[in-house]
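TICKET: design request
STATUS: open
ATTACHED STRUCTURE:
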């Protein structure tokens, strides 16, 4: 059965989509069967991996997969080892559908069950087809995020070195704990990835040190600094990208640390 890992924090600009895409790519590169799931209505992960505008997946996305409890018709093949369950703008209507049954098309579908376990129920249909499932989440503690956490074995918390991200950490940790209690996978925080670090800023250095002091056993040793090739991954992707080796250099260290923790249980 697939090991499921979610990237999250309820703040934008923390490289959740980029990191999810990189992790999916590195896992597939190493021969694992991987499904990347986009739970953010912005569809950035979808565009990064598919190289298509997310709007092209209207009515063919993770939203419809969850409404039908069947992801198979909506899975997009990216490479031999990597598949994508895409997202697009109408994923933002997911909470309305949960609580009213009304779809973005104006019709109604029936849902019965726990609202936080819809994605989990959906992924159960195909978990035996993959080694890893990696999930991108929106920059909020939303129903999309709750569903991603409850469907996960592990969570990587993204930490952009700033005061607003630092203040978001306790609430997100509580959300992970809530998923552990109410979900079915004993969800746990596998680590905190310090990312988007600007080495020129003294305040960034201070927040890096503060989060390490607060959570010494959770932080990854790797700190991902701001580099142009990483920022341009969204533009060039993973195929025919002359900068790919540079873009992945720092992520390789994070990937090694993460896999050691996963294998250690």
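STATUS: resolved
RESOLUTION: sequence designed for all positions
ATTACHED SEQUENCE:
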């Amino acid at each position: 059965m697939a090991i499921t890992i979610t990237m999250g924090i309820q703040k934008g600009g923390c490289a959740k989509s980029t990191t999810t895409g990189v992790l999916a790519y590195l896992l597939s590169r190493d021969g694992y069967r991987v499904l990347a799931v986009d739970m953010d209505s912005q569809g950035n992960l979808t565009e990064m991996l598919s190289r298509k505008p997310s709007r092209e997946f209207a009515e063919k996305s993770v939203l419809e997969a969850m409404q039908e409890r069947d992801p198979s018709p909506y899975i997009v093949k990216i490479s031999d080892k990597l598949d994508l369950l895409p997202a697009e703008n109408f994923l933002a209507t997911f909470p309305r559908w949960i609580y009213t049954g009304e779809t973005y098309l104006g019709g109604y579908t029936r849902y019965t069950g726990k609202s936080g376990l819809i994605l989990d129920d959906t992924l159960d249909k195909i978990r035996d087809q993959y080694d890893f499932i990696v999930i991108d989440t929106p920059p909020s503690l939303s129903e999309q995020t709750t569903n991603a956490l409850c469907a996960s074995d592990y969570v990587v918390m993204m930490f952009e070195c700033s005061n607003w991200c630092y203040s978001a950490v306790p609430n997100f940790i509580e959300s992970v704990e809530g998923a552990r209690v109410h979900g079915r996978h004993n969800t746990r925080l596998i680590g905190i990835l310090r990312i988007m670090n600007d080495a020129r800023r003294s305040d960034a250095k201070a927040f890096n040190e503060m989060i390490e002091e607060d959570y010494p056993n959770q932080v990854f040793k790797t700190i991902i600094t701001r580099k142009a090739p990483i920022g341009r991954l969204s533009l060039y992707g993973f195929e025919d990208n002359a900068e790919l080796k540079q873009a992945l250099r720092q992520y390789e260290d994070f990937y090694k640390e993460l896999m050691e923790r996963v294998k250690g249980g």
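CLOSING REMARK: The beta strands are 3-8, 34-38, 76-77, 82-85, 132-136, 154-160, 188-197, 219-225. The domain at 3-264 is CATH 3.40.50.300 (Rossmann fold).
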